[in-house]
Each structure stands twice: as C-alpha cells, then as structure tokens.
C-alpha cells in the first residue's frame, strides 16, 4: 500500500471548499481532460453525501476503466471519506479533510491505495502509481482552488 498526501491552501471559506469538493459536476470538470472522466452510475449532479455511491469511467494508461466508490464517512464541513467498492485497485481510500487557517482553508487529501497483482502491483505502486496519482490529485486540487477563489455568491 502507498499513501499520497497533498495539502492545498485555498483563499475561500471552509464551507465553500467543502461543497465544491463534493460537487459531482465540478469533479468531472476538474480532472485531466485526456482521461475523459464521466459518471456512469449514481447521481450525476449535486453534492455527494454520506452513503452515496458513484461509478466513474475514465481512461488511465490508455485503458478505459470504471471505479465505484461510496462515501463511508461524512462530517460537514470538516471531512468526508470515499472508499472504492469496485475498480482496478485492490483497495483505494480517499480522505478529504478541511481546516480553517486564518482567512483561508487548508484542504488535505490523503489517498491510500493498493495495486493488485502481488509483487508486480507493489512495483507499480512505487515506480508509477505514486507519481501519477499525486499529479492527478494536484491537478484536480488546483482547478478546485481556482474555482473557489473566483467564486462569487449568487
């Protein structure tokens, strides 16, 4: 298993950051364009809540794959966790945490994942997946930060 942690400082209120991180439409817009990620099962719009299950389809490493995750922990506006129910990994857990620091919000993502295939998966985690998944998270978080920081209340 590998653990990837990113921290993003966002100049926006914690409640807004928490909502944007749970926004399904925004989620599919904030990931790498070449993955062509989309929701194929579950709610396609709105905000995920505790207990929600969503299936995403995306292209990674030139392979179209599906990943189903369920929100297993939910404490607004501080934390939510989604765990893989099915997908390409042996296991995947994504912990989203939010903390107010001065006038900003610190969004911390912790991704715990295990690749399948025993020793081959262990090598893939260390040689490819750690770097790839960290870049994937950072790209998403930068888009979320841009959105939050230019947000204008309606």
TrEMBL record:
CDD domains: SRPBCC_3. InterPro entries: Polyketide_cyclase/dehydratase, START-like_dom_sf. It comes from the Bacteria. It holds the Pfam family Polyketide_cyc2. This is SRPBCC family protein. It comes from Paenibacillus filicis. The lineage of its organism: Bacteria, Bacillati, Bacillota, Bacilli, Bacillales.
